[in-house]
Amino acid sequence: MVGVSVLGISGSVGTSTVKVLRQFPDQFDLRSFSVHSNWNVAKALVEEFSPEVICITDPKLVGKFGDSYLSTKILYGDKALIDLVQLPSVGVVVTAVVGARGVLPTIAAIEAGKKIAIANKETLVTFGPLINRLVAKHNTVMVPVDSEHNALFQLIQRETRSNIRAITLTASGGSFRTLPLEALEHVSVKQALNHPTWSMGPKITVDSAGLINKGLEVIEAHFLFGFSYDEIEVVIHPQSITHGIIETTDGACLLYASHPDMVYPIAHSLFYPNPTPQMLIERKPSTWNTFEFFPPDTKRYPGLLLAYQAGKAGGAAPGIFNAANEEAVALFLEEKISFTTIPRLIESALNQIENVFPETLDGYLEKDQETRNYIQREFNQGGVTT
Ligand SMILES: NC(=O)c1ccc[n+]([C@@H]2O[C@H](COP(=O)([O-])OP(=O)(O)OC[C@H]3O[C@@H](n4cnc5c(N)ncnc54)[C@H](OP(=O)(O)O)[C@@H]3O)[C@@H](O)[C@H]2O)c1
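A: This is the predicted complex of the input protein with NAP.
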């Protein structure tokens, strides 16, 4: 029995993780979890799983639900996430909160030697070199939950590294793949949240619509697998059935395919290094009628090129890319800026904020904050925003 902690259990990845835990009650025991504000979900999960401790991170809710419910302890605030992941009974931590704020509990979990099932890509994008150093130092394992990276992780393990020429991440193309380019400026939040193949949280769904999510994933793949940016490719695959492709030196391509459901990568990351037992959901290749692959249109998806630019620059640039995007997407979701302003703000931040090569967490955090302040200033002064 492996003890599990899930950060962000009320979100899309968190909910899929609970589905996996329900399928394998003899293998996994939910020991701790967090929600930001979703008490109804937290209460129901406490009743179902009886964890030792949970955390509510929204500062407006401190103390609101007392210090325990049934036999479960309730903690409040971001800092308590560290207590959740460091519980002695926890063996694996699923990081499913959204945004670079996931960094402190991720570091705490690594330092406590826990296996990390990492969904929270913003943490890896912003703090990649630091996280990699810590994983090596504490001799722990980080398994990607992102479907593309999980697919690549599994493919790469089956092939000799020197035989791999390039890796490819697939992208559905998001909500606006076929929309006329001139209409992009005026799309609504509701349209952006209408993803064709995946059901996900709002931030990542907007990221996907502009392929900025794929840009984050390119950087994530660089830090996870150590390939150079010239060896990481992106292809539009509207069906979202193939998740990752490795191209071998003999010119062959090995594809990983599965129905687009996060329970596959989540189950793999929880069971790893053991194989996932038979799952209760169906895989039906006979229903996969069409596999289409196209190169991404960089006019439609300028954010993807910006991600490569930031990744290649290295240092704090990927974090500047990420923080500018987090702030811009939040403004878009509040209907304060247009969809096409998101990449314009990111480009402006990358051009205006000096890149540095931080050695410490504080160095990265300073650039993260500087970028967020920059975007807010740009917005308030009406700079590149519309
Ligand atoms: N969704 C996917 O299929 C998918 C696939 C691959 C990777 N990812 C990555 O996984 C992460 C989570 O994505 P998601 O789609 O599951 O997001 P989501 O549905 O928006 O869920 C976010 C979770 O984080 C919590 N949260 C929100 N604001 C918070 C804050 N300020 N502090 C702490 N916790 C906070 C939410 O709690 P409340 O519900 O209480 O607000 C919720 O539990 C992201 O990094 C995303 O890029 C997602």
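DSSP finds 14 helices and twelve strands in the chain. Residues 8-14, 35-38, 57, 96-98, 101, 119-122, 146, 198, 200-204, 262 surround NAP (CB under 6 Å).
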